[in-house]
Amino acid sequence: MKCILAKPRGFCAGVERAILMVEKSIEKFGSPVYVRHEIVHNRFVVDSLRKIGAIFVEDLSEVPEKAVVIFSAHGVSKDIYESAKSLHLKVIDATCPIVKSVHRSAIKYANSGCSIILIGHQGHAEIDGTLGQLPLGKMYLISSAKEVQKLPAMKKEVAYLTQTTLSTEETANIISALKKKYPGIQGPKTGNVCYATNNRQSAVRSMCQEVDLLLIVGSQNSSNSNRLRELGDEQGVKSILIDSVKNLKKSMFKGVNTVGISSGASAPEYLVLEIIEWLKEHFNLEEIVEEQTLKEETKFPLPAELAAT
Question: What is the pTM of this model?
Answer without folding.
Answer: 0.94
